[in-house]
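Appendix B. Chain record.
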Amino acid sequence: MPPAGAVWAGRLHNTAGLLGMGMAFWAEIKRRKVVRVAAAYAVVAWILIQVVATVEAPLNLPGWLDTLVIVLVVVGFPLALVLSWAYDLTPAGIERTEHLEKSDKIALELTASFSLEQESPPNVLPCSLAVLPFANMSDDPGQEYFSDGLTEDIITDLSLIPGLFVIARNSTFTYKGKPIDVRQLGRDMGVHYVLEGSVRKSADQVRVTAQLIEAANGHHLWAKKYDRELEDVFAIQDELAREIVTALDVKLVSGEKGRHQRSCVKNPEAKEVLYRGMAKFYEFDEASHDQAKKFFEEFTQLEPDSILGYVWQAQMCQIEIFLGWGEDRDLSLKNMGEFLEKALNIDDRDPLALGHAGMHQLFLGNHDQAITLAKQAVAEAPGMDSPYYSLGWFQMFGEAPLEGIENLKRAIRLSPVATAPRLTILGTAYRNAGQLDVAVDTLESTVRRFPAFIPGRVALASCYALTGKEKKAQQEAREILRRDPAYTISRYTTPNLYRNKKTMEEWAESLRKAGIPD
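Structure tokens predicted for this chain:
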């Protein structure tokens, strides 16, 4: 007989699945416009019945006519719903409604469970997991980069498993070094399960412990200890992923994508170098950026057949283009393209490589190609946040902000501790879609939570100017210049990534009205 905890876990998982299916089904009904057709049918039917009842006597129509009309209306209602589910009215005529792929169904579940405000916890996703930063139990505190890097690798591996929702690193790492109430974390993140563990590294040996916890009640579903030589750390990641898949009863599809890119890394020294580079990357300043680049370059020299080094180096080039940290933007763009070509030659289905390749195409002005690549990334990893973020961003610049908003929401749902950049992009997308009141609300919330983040204030000043709130726009502009006296409109408009270059000029003009200098 299975233990009580496992029985309750199974019941909870089944209940979660039913709730998730319910949310996804409701989202699918709305996507197929069934609700809209039902409402329109009811209105037209009511009018028709009233007209027949009114003209029946004056026109000497048979007395049974109104009864017949009511019967026909009632019989026709379910038929109308079935037809609205199967077909859609488009500019090209009546067409069969497109069938959703698995990644699209997952996207609907994410949309259904979205909640922007911190005060409003997100709905719990079915088969969802938060991986907490594994604790560094080594004698040397300086080994923390290794436990952090291993945690991120585990998150990435699990994110690539279809049917499993995994909260992004940016959210779970906010809990690092803090006392944690698993129940509260489950509510805050909207997940059913939490994975926590520790890493002890000594010379060429590594011990990893992990335990899977049911967030609703804190019950431990399983715990395991792995003792390996350092070169076998990849085997630990594989075993850990298989244990979780088994425990959560996730049905795997063919091609376990997460393993292949790491199986190419055989050199334990290379893994050390990679994790040191990742640690420097997340310090996110110009000096650390340069150090991280050197680590990723060294990793690529040690492991030229691994996709990881090329993907990370492409990401470094992307940051240089945006923040001006490189010596030459054109050179960074050229290098980015070369790194991505090598990455995709190794694995043309890797979602991170596809996402960065989309960004590269966006820099080149190829919006349609950028969106296509981002959609491929979503299809490869529908449980990962970054492909949705890339797709939403590309759609916003490609003059499709409404579609972009939905994908940005999905990215935020998979990383509920939303960052200032993502909230700012979401607010900007609302602005671009003409939903100025929602944009202002989103950006005011962003500025309250991240007062030092200048791009959030810039987007808010633009929205104030566009809504005629000139005093607020000017006040926001003064605060921007107080915090960054050298800020100019040209910094906001470089690079101009919009498909229609005139779009950026409209936003630039709103900043001029607010008082930002050219």
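Further analysis of this model is presented in Appendix C.
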